Amino acid sequence: MHLDLLAGAYSIARLPPTAAIPEWAHGSDLLSITRTPAELSIVCGNVPEGIPCQRDWRCLRVRGPLDFSLTGVLASLAVPLAEAGVPIFVISTFDTDYILVPRAQVDRASAALLQSGHTIDRV
């Protein structure tokens, strides 16, 4: 897989399931909003202080678009990262997948993925 390491840092916020989508969620180059009966999760680059979230994640984007018939895409990325002890948060879209890793472990994650045969460009 060919990956792009996106510039900037991202946060993963958790709000109550009935919360309105907050205005601060908009304006980030990466925005993912998922509502379930248990939570409203928002991934973006600008979560204000005081909002429950995990901060300081970097994002690797799989170059797409990916065909829906492909299999093993996430496994080919998740397995080497798990073996390297790197936690991940995954977002899938219609065209591709995004793998978020803690900023403190981005070098370890990159090394594991490169060793597994993937390529990474910084964008």
Characterise the protein shown here.
The structure is a single chain. The protein is α+β, with helices and mostly antiparallel strands and 123 residues long. The protein has one domain: VC0802-like, CATH 3.30.2130.10. The protein has two helices and eight strands. Strands 1, 2, 3, 4, 5, 6, 7 and 8 form an eight-stranded mixed β-sheet that branches. A hairpin with a 4-residue loop joins strand 6 and strand 7. The radius of gyration is 15 Å and the shape is globular. The protein starts with a strand and ends with a strand.
Topology diagram in text:
Blueprint: E1 2-5, E2 10-15, E3 32-35, E4 40-44, E5 53-62, H1 73-83, E6 89-92, E7 97-102, H2 106-115, E8 119-122
Parallel strand pairs: 1-8
Antiparallel strand pairs: 1-5, 2-4, 2-5, 3-4, 5-7, 6-7
Helix pairs in contact: 1-2
Mean pLDDT: 95
The CATH class: Alpha Beta
One letter per element, helices H and strands E, the order comes to: EEEEEHEEHE
| The CATH architecture | 2-Layer Sandwich
Shape: globular
User: What is the subunit organization of this protein?
Assistant: single chain
Tally of helical segments = 2
Helix amount: 10-25%
Strand content: 25-35%
Please name the fourth-level CATH homologous superfamily. VC0802-like
Tally of distinct domains: 1
**Which class do the helix and strand fractions yield?**
alpha+beta
Report how far apart the termini are. 16 Å
Annotation, overall tally of beta strands: 8
Q: Give the uncertain stretches in residue-range form.
A: none
